[in-house]
Write a structure and sequence with these properties.
With about 220 residues, the protein is an alpha/beta fold. It has helices spanning about 25-45, 50-65, 70-80, 85-90, 100-110, 120-130, 145, 155-165, 180-185; strands at about 15, 115-120, 140-145, 170-175, 190-195, 210-215. It has a 6-stranded parallel beta sheet, with helices on both faces. The structure holds magnesium ion. Magnesium ion binds next to loops.
Length: about 220
């Protein structure tokens, strides 16, 4: 039996939700970046798979936590490969996490302001929404690319607050990235939750100081 995660719903009016690894299974993204891309890259440059992985992973490492890391135009240019097209190749792996739709319907029924808050650029969001029909649940869809800062970067929440109206003390934010959650905590977002197992094909992660959701059923 899973424990219920008790939240004071009467005190929450805005719910910010991350996309990849939170509402959607991170398996797609991990598979794409760590398996499919190296294979394509190896072919293009006539490298062995392990050489391709090594080169790409060092590329990835240099970019992590910046907006460029999440930017498919940046990667298309850097690697001279059409990332959007490549992402479509393995799109059958894009999957919604179990009970997410029920949770979104619950939030809607409770009249919460539901905001998708993602580091994914709008092209990727649109591509994913062609495979998982959850777009209709959101009152707003915000990509950090619109703000010019990634969610984990200093100043992100300030910028966001200049654009949309919410109260930190009445906001819940769910994200699988601990750096992102810590930036939100610094901004005093009252309710923060992590994800126990962002990628269904990998081990669960240690979410350190954050309570982690094992199933969205725990929330309603
Ligand atoms: Mg995420």
């Amino acid at each position: 039996m899973l424990n219920k995660i008790s939240l004071d719903w009467t005190n929450i009016d805005t719910v910010f939700l991350d996309m990849d690894g939170t509402l959607l299974d991170l398996h797609y993204d991990n598979h794409f970046w760590l398996e499919y891309m190296p294979m394509k890259y190896a072919k293009k440059h006539q490298l062995s798979l392990s050489e391709a992985k090594e080169q790409l992973i060092s590329h990835y490492g240099a970019m992590k936590g910046t907006l460029n890391w999440y930017c498919i135009d940046h990667w298309s240019e850097q690697l001279a490969m059409d990332m959007l097209m490549l992402k479509q190749d393995v799109s059958e792996r894009i999957k919604i996490r179990e009970h997410v739709e029920d949770f979104l319907a619950f939030l809607q029924q409770q009249k919460k302001h539901i905001i998708l808050l993602t580091n994914a650029p709008s092209k990727t969001i649109q591509m994913k929404f062609q495979h998982v029909a959850i777009e209709q649940y959101f009152d707003q869809i915000i990509s950090s690319h619109q703000l010019g800062l990634a969610k984990e970067q200093h100043g992100f929440w300030n910028k966001l607050h200049q654009q949309i109206d919410f109260k930190v003390q009445n906001s819940l934010f769910i994200d699988d990235n601990l750096s992102v959650l810590r930036a939100a905590r610094q901004y005093n977002i009252a309710y923060l939750l992590a994800i126990h197992q962002p990628d269904s094909q990998q081990m669960a992660v240690d979410t350190e100081e954050f309570t982690a959701i094992k199933s969205f059923k725990q929330l309603f």
